[in-house]
Amino acid sequence: MTALIELNAAGRVFHEGVFGRGRPIVALADCSISLAPGETLGVIGESGSGKTTLGRLALRLDTPTNGSVRWMGQDVTHLPESRLRPLRPFLAQVAQDPYASLNPRIPVGTTIAEPLVNFGLASPADAMARVPDLLRAVGLPADVGNRLPHAFSGGQRQRIAIARALASEPKVIVCDEAVSALDLSVRAQIVNLLVSLQDRLGIALLFIAHDALLVRHLAHRVIVMYRGRVVEEGPATEILDAPAHPYTRTLLAAVPARHPSERAPRPVPVRATVEPGQTNGGCPYQPRCPLAEARCSSVRPELVGDPNGRRVACHIVTADAWTGACTGAVR
Amino acid sequence: MSLLEVRDLSVAFGQGSQQVRAIEQIGLTVDAGEILVAVGESGCGKSVTALAVMGLIDPRQGLITGGSVRVAGQELVGASPSALRSLRRGRLAMVFQEPLSALNPVMRVGAQIAEALPPETRDRPDRAIALLTEVGIVDAAARSRAYPHELSGGMRQRVVIAMALAQEPQVLIADEATTALDATVQAQILELFLSLRRDRGLSILAITHDFGVVAEIADRVAVFYAGRVVETAPAARLFDAPAHPYTRALIAARPVPGVAPRTLLPEIAGVVPRLADMPPGCRFAPRCPLATDLCRQSEPLPGPLAPGHVVACHHPVTAPVTAPETAS
User: Fold this and answer.
1) Checking CA distances to A277, which of B39, B63, B153, B158 falls within 20 to 30 Å?
2) Which residues of B touch A184 (CB under 8 A)?
3) Tens-place pLDDT, residues A139-190
4) Who among B138, B184, B257 is closest to A216 (CB)?
5) Please, which residues have CB within 8 angstroms of residue A200's CB and are 6 or more apart in sequence?
6) ipTM for the complex shown
7) Considering the domain boundaries, does residue A224 fall inside one?
8) A222 within domain boundaries
């Protein structure tokens, strides 16, 4: 089956300074992902780990400096925007902040219909006629399309952003921290909406989030990123219930307790951190890793393991040794 | 007597018919060495309460319309700005969500901490370095000469906490102090709060929307909804037997580890009401699965349910929490 989106050894290097001639910053290195129809691929990692850059490359809002991007098997790595445009309706995105992503002066119905008009999929009148259905699909009253964004709460705005994303009947939606800014009671509503839309419409989601529990709830597969590299990937529940890579374990150990009785003393590793984007040739996690050995600072571990199952990039914890020994590390 | 005592505190913004009441009759206490966590959704009045306690409500926009704030027995409401300054010193200090906006970008962090020291120790750079060490910054002498942009987000928040500690407060107010940080860094800062309480006997009033923060550090919890405190309880009891339907629903809305993915999460229907548009009766009634006519007509007063457990609800739930329940 052809993957909807495929990144093959994709990388993105930025340069410091106003004129882009300064020190290189590796935002993403050697990243390979593939997204199957109807699948949710979760992406977790701390800020600066390259999650957003990965999403932007997948959407071809940015061009990789090496590697390739394919949409439904077609290489789109260097296609100019004029040739990308006819392909664009097949994907959509929902951004983090529904206050920033909706134009405050434009009625929400117009915003929702805009992709249809923009991509020439419908006349303005036909596009507006679709709005009530799209509003209903996201659980809003069908007749609110003529209101301005300020009339809506944060959760309702995020529903509007999702309605807009659904307008072009995409096969993929990229959600970059799409529920992070929402309050807890509203977040559950939007998460449930995403699950039901996906089950009903078979849309694939690239779900980028820093919240590991939320990703476990939504994603079929997950990739864990650290400083621009994938350090672990595989089925979401397997990875998040029994993480192998020392970084994934640290990330999950930092998930707050669910009950005061689960409080545990935390290791507080205040080590000198390496500047983001600087590589030392070895494992990117080596400066923080409690298990690091000499080879970790000189040889970068490759992602190894079953390509259809779990893969881990670590010299110490090998791909087939995660069970047992590793699960104990997560409190 | 508690170290910090907030009674019937009300704050209103705007004038005349435009006036909206942001918080009403808030009651809170923080004992010496205690960590009280105020939790609730955005717009529920947590931050306004913190600002009112600090005396930081901008008089051009709002005012304290009633109630009292006492720290170590000293009344802060009604004090003049200059009197407030001296009342706060040595008693109250506050840290905010975004450390970068709390720091001067063109001043070395050591000098910024020194500025916050009491006048008699202000020219002692070793005091600033000692504070940086206390908040867990390695190689504090070198770091004290850094500018804010040279530090990571977690280190900046440590610097801001060091500035607050420079004022030798008895109570530290932390408003969403870990919200902007990565989970691993948040865990470190929460650990720092616990160690400051242990080593200095510091009292902390922490404000958050995240029940994870509550579970990690709270001794007691005050749940805010629509400008009111709807439930106060010891932390473990709040998780085991939340009595207010709102608290119950919030606790149930979290994804559960170990449970089958993609099952429906319990939702709370509707949204927090706007300040200008409060429903009559109980403010949660329009969203509450248990609401009756009584709830829609008269606002419930806070009443004791068990030692230390107070709830403002006509129909408090007394059953303990069972496995994933549906709240709506």
Assistant:
1) B158
2) 41, 209-211, 250, 253-254
3) 999 999 999 999 998 889 999 999 999 999 999 999 999 998 888 878 888 9
4) B257
5) none
6) 0.87
7) yes
8) yes
